[in-house]
Write a structure and sequence with these properties.
By secondary structure, this protein is of the alpha+beta class. The protein is built from seven helices and 23 strands. The protein is flat.
């Protein structure tokens, strides 16, 4: 009897276990697939305080143009700059000093076609040392038609403190092209700006202080308390508790090595840490100049009804000429008559269904059949009515 009861008992338990496994398998198959969390490198989320670019600016001359330079009668500063440059090279115009009255009168008679006054801009990268080459951008300041084929003369580039940090010179590369003849003109891209690759030599280094008293700071690209907390947790898990401390929603203080070699290794490991940022806030960007509308995936819609009618006003003006009779010694009178038409399309109420994801939001907005300009007004009205769950930003 023990054998008879023991075998059915084990069989019964196996049947129950099989049913449980089958139910678990069906439940797992019914669940949606979970996508892995998207993590980003820390270097893409934060900036190291003190490691930054520095803009440079300078004023110079571009020579060697093919008759497309400044018209000196309208840009007197071009001839003044040229006279000062020649005076520094030991050449005076009409054997007169550059600042005398006779020299000023002679400058007004100079017609330059191959010279253009330009502004030169560059960006000094962090840790740049004297002797390094950086790119510069050359932009026409006067009424030059083209900088193609020109050469930038030696130009000092200054920082915000007025000190010279680089010297620029070289051949200007212009990406545009164009031609004109007898009033006709064809042009591709712009001809009044160009670039000199490696056209400036760094002459002065900017002191960069990354670590002070064994601490450094990280600044998040966008303020977010959740992301800041996640960065602090990731750094402390990798380097030990107390390495990172959040000062506010954007600034994180780090306890870093004081030795420069260890500091470089610490920053290299730090920047490669994977951190999952917090979800971005729902935002809709409206560009009022171009009519562009961009929204992120967090934007949602609530059900609402929208009616939008277009109003158009057409003004047509035609000249009316009244001529006098022959030999009447009268005068021809020209008058203008205007016809004004105003038309407003009927805007019926349309139901906009709620959308929980970006595809549903786009589908609901496209159902209105509105133009981008009209859609900007509709989105603002939806935001005021509480149907658009997103932040509107107009740029």
């Amino acid at each position: 009897m023990r054998t008879v009861f023991s075998r059915p008992g084990r069989f019964t338990r196996l049947v129950h276990l099989g049913r449980v496994l089958a139910i678990v398998a069906l439940a797992c198959a019914a669940l949606p697939a979970v996508t892995p969390a998207h993590a980003e490198r820390l270097k893409d989320l934060v900036q190291i305080q003190g490691v930054r670019d520095n803009p440079l600016i300078g004023y110079g001359l571009v020579v060697g143009l093919d008759g497309t330079g400044d018209q000196t009668t309208q840009t007197p500063f071009t001839t003044q700059t040229l006279a000062n440059m020649l005076a520094n090279l030991g050449i005076s115009i009409n054997n007169q000093a550059a600042g005398s009255s006779n020299s000023q009168s002679s400058l007004s008679n100079i017609q330059l076609k191959n010279v253009a006054a330009v502004m030169v801009t560059a960006v000094l990268p962090p840790f740049a040392r004297p002797g390094e080459a950086i790119d510069v951008t050359v932009s026409s300041l006067g009424n030059s038609k083209s900088l193609r084929g020109g050469t930038l003369l030696l130009t000092p580039l200054k920082g915000a403190d007025g000190q010279v940090y680089a010297l620029g010179q070289g051949n200007v590369a212009v990406g545009g092209a164009g031609a004109s003849a007898n009033g006709s003109k064809v042009q591709v891209n712009t001809l009044n700006a160009g670039r000199v690759a490696g056209g400036a030599i760094v002459e002065r280094a900017v002191p960069t202080s990354v670590s002070q008293a064994g601490t450094m700071q990280l600044d998040l690209n966008e303020m977010d308390y959740d992301t800041t907390q996640r960065v602090v947790a990731a750094v402390n898990n990798a380097f030990g508790s107390g390495t990172a401390t959040a000062l506010d929603g954007r600034t994180i203080q780090l306890r870093a090595p004081t030795d420069p070699e260890q500091q470089v290794a610490f920053m290299a490991q730090l920047q490669n840490l994977d951190v999952k940022p917090a979800q971005a806030a729902a935002k809709v960007i409206l560009n009022a100049r171009t009519g562009s509308i961009v929204m992120n995936q967090m934007v949602t819609l609530q059900s609402c009804a929208v009616a939008h009618g277009n109003l158009s006003v057409v003004i047509n003006t035609q000249p009316v000429v009244s001529q006098p009779g022959a030999f009447s010694n009268g005068q021809t009178v020209v008058e203008k008559q205007s016809q004004i038409q105003m038309k407003q399309d009927n805007g019926a109420l349309k139901m906009v269904t709620a959308g929980a994801n970006l595809a549903e939001v786009v589908k609901a907005l496209n159902a209105l059949g509105a133009t981008p300009a009209d859609l900007m007004s509709i989105l603002q009205a939806m935001k005021a009515a509480g149907a658009l769950r997103a932040e509107l930003e107009i740029i």
